[in-house]
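Long-time lurker. I teach an intro course on protein structure, and each term I like to show students one example going from raw sequence to a predicted 3D structure in token notation. This year I'd like something fresh instead of my usual example. Would anyone be willing to generate the tokens for the chain below so I can use it in lecture? Attribution to the forum is fine with me.
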Amino acid sequence: MDAQIESPQAAWPFGDGLVERCRGLPPARTAVAHPCDETAILAAVDAARRGLITPLLIGPPNKIHAAAERAGVDISGLTLVATPHSHAAAARAVCLVREGKAELIMKGSLHTDELMHEVLAPDTGLRTARRVSHVYLMQTEHYPKPLLITDGAINITPNLEDKRDIVQNAIDLAHVLGIARPKVAVLSAVETVSSRIPSTLDAAALCKMADRGQITGGLIDGPLAFDNAINAEAAAEKGILSEVAGAADILMAPDLVAGNIIAKQLSFLGGAFAAGVVLGARVPIILTSRADSERTRVTSCALAVLVAENLGLLTRIEAAAHG
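-- Reply from a regular --
Happy to contribute to a lecture. Here you go:
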């Protein structure tokens, strides 16, 4: 995640609503991998204060305590799981999930690649039949509803099968958010299919896959250029007849670079607020950044908690606790 441009008084009704929805849920036990700087420890403590998570702080205890002291927060009531370094912290976070001791993973002050290497390890990781992907949830005053943008953080150059899973992950998240039939715009540079632009071929194939039931739960159209996807007048100018054009809920980028650029442009030029979550593993994964605002960190946690509830993780754990 990256920095958001926001004023102290700015409201994020949709994001605030997500936090409110979590109030009746038990805090999710969250493996926080290597929270050894002020931002990482604050992310865990802020979410814990709001009742969203119960953090398990994994890493070198001396570094974690030093980060907490610099941040001015008390972690005496939190559980510390000692590991010698960041790689071991990532491995232990994954192990805690496999052992049924954690329902979420939160990235601390280690590289995303280091954490995801352990998550995606073939024999010891958290893979499922679904491709793992990241989804941004963004809201800007220049668009009338929240936007889901995928994938700008995990999959660098996804193939067609990867894109099927990336779209399905985003649709499933939209359902969690209460969007019954999300409109998915599969983006490219143009709205016509051309063999010279491979992303347009993938977009057309994804639409047909949806027709054949290989992607479910949403309304998909593409290829669509960005303007056609989010602006009805631009779509009308091109003569595009589509329920998705000009009204997209989900923007499916052709690759990581495009998705990342879209999200950052919306943040820095469009003043958008953002949260994000990684889907497709056994548990949701929260990726935090030093540049994230408190609101972004907290809303990302709320998003992950709601996904965990939808997957039945919190219900099972609550039942086990009473068993």
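Some talking points for your students: The chain has two domains: 25-127+281-323, 131-280. Residues 1-10, 317-323 have pLDDT under 50 and may be disordered.
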